[in-house]
Amino acid sequence: MILSVDQGTSSTKATLFDQSGTAVTSATVPLGQAHPRPGWVEQDAGEILAGVRSVVDQIAAAHPVDAVALSTQRESAVVWDRATGEPVGPMLGWQDRRTAQRVADLTEHADRVRAISGLPLDPMFSALKLQWLLDDVDPDRSRSRAGELAVGTVDSWLVTRLTGEHRIEAGNASRTQLLDLATGEWSEELCELFHIPAAVLPRVAASDEPTGEVAGLPGRRVHAVLGDSHAALYGHGVRGPGALKATYGTGSSVMGLVDDAAGVPDGLVGTVAWRLGARLVVGIEGNILASGATVAWLSRLVGRSVEELTALARTAPEDHGVVLVPAVAGLGAPHWDPAARAILVGFDLGTDPGILARAAMEAIAHQITDVVDAAEAAAPVQAILADGAPAADDFLMQLQADLGGRSVRRPRYSRLSARGAAQLAADTLGGGFAPVESDTFTPRHDNAEARSQWASALALTHG
Predict the structure, then answer these.
(1) Which residue in 76, 233, 278, 456 has the most C-beta neighbors within 10 A?
(2) CA distances from 128 to 226, 252, 295, 424, 437 (A)
(3) Is residue 99 part of a domain?
(4) What is the dihedral of CA 420, 426, 430, 435, to 10 degrees?
(5) What is an example of a GO molecular function annotated in this UniProt entry (predicted)?
(6) CB of 43 within 8 A of CB of 90?
(7) Domain limits for position 34
């Protein structure tokens, strides 16, 4: 029995899988966020750790656990005191944009940063977050160089506190913007550029490298660690180029595999998908900053639940003419414009909550399609492999097929991040999971007019 912990932006979920990959039971705890200033997104690393311990304890108290797997949010960054193990500041969430000015200050280095890390200069990635945190608590870096402080992403924080090993999984490490994509090791040049002393960094570990014993689970180890999007890709069964998955959540991640870093199309980023032993597997990815978050925002704005809004969206006419571009934190892939601003066009006095809800859901599908279109420079994409909680909505999946002009295949078990991490653990231990059955949504009509309206609205966000 493999206990897979999926630590996400809004909650921590644990699922117990049997040897065939069937989910036996699960537990969930919610997770809060703070927004102390516009564009700032903070979480409490201690709350995240407590949530993980809670869901693990709930399941382990009632069921046998043979191994643990871990899937986590990725670019969020935290600094802690090595002696006490306690954070010395907030965890900066992956959506946090407080370092936008630093991106502007480093523009002359952008090409070099991307050449080494595979990533464009953007506040989403961890390097600038870690620099900001260290500037706050250790401006001269004396504590860092003395070994008093440690830094990491969510997986690194959890593994450190649960096993005592300060390490980071290779795929998560690649999201820091400090990793050399060609070697899979920390880049001295990038660490110097972002003022991150080597002494604070965790050791880069393979995705399938077992940890030491997990506190509270005698004799049990973490046998697989993956970033949440990487875990979903693994859970879909993608092992080579030509397939593309889209994870729907607060934001969205579209990801596939390429043969090497030279195959990364314009507008997308190169990343380590996973490392199995010494073998580094390279992926391509497009990150969307606001997808499900758009519907959640609209829910608060109009005072209706998300469920009510999605029901209303079904009643809106297809030719409503309203376009919402949710560039609330700038635009991610394939546009990479941190200065873009959200825009709503085409509305009039007859626009009602149902039309706004449909426009918000269409915005999710349009953004996914933008990334998929860019990814076709690497290999043709015949179908989108969908996962994540919002993917359970048939209406959204049909919108994706219609607006994207491609079939959408959705596994009947949608929590692919948890299952993917568990599947890697099972593979590591010599087992394996049965394939997941899928539902398919096919395009019903031409998408040219809708895509043209989207492109026109998108152009207005840059001004």
Answers:
(1) 233
(2) 22, 21, 29, 31, 41
(3) yes
(4) -50
(5) ATP binding
(6) yes
(7) 2-224
Q: Is 205 a residue whose pLDDT tops 90?
A: yes
Asked if the structure places residue 409 within a domain, the reply is: no
Crossing angle of helices 292-302 and 306-313, in 10° steps, is: 100
Q: Which residues pair with 276 in a beta bridge?
A: 279
In a 3-state reduction of DSSP, which class is residue 358?
helix
What one-letter code names the amino acid at 34? A
Q: How does pLDDT run across 124-163, given as a tens digit for each residue?
A: 999 999 999 999 999 999 999 999 999 999 999 999 999 9
- Contact between 311 and 352 under an 8 Å Cβ cutoff? The reply is no
Q: What is the pLDDT of residue 221?
A: 97
Which tens digit of pLDDT belongs to each residue from 374-408? 998 877 887 899 988 899 999 999 999 999 999 99
What the block records as the tokens of 362 is 């269409």
CB-based contacts of 259: which residues, under 8 Å, 6+ apart? 241, 282
Query: And the tokens for 30?
Result: 């919610």
Q: Which helix (H) or strand (E) holds 399?
A: helix 394-404
Structure tokens at 365: 């599908």
**Does 70 fall in a domain?**
yes
Identity of residue 97: R
What's the total number of domains in the chain? 1
Q: Assign residue 86 the CATH number of its domain.
A: 3.30.420.40
Angle at which helix 154-163 crosses helix 45-60, to 10 degrees, equals 60
Q: Is residue 6 part of a domain?
A: yes
pLDDT classification of 463: cutoffs 50, 70, 90: low
Q: Is the pTM of this model over 0.70?
A: yes
Tokens representing residue 8 in the block = 């996400």
Please say if the pLDDT value at position 256 is more than 70. yes
Other Cβ atoms within 10 Å of 315 Cβ, number: 12
Distance CA 22, CA 391 (A): 19
SS3 207: coil
pLDDT tens digits, 312-341: 999 999 999 999 999 988 898 999 888 899
CB 374 within 8 A of CB 357: no
Query: What sections of 314-393 are H helices per DSSP?
Result: 353-375
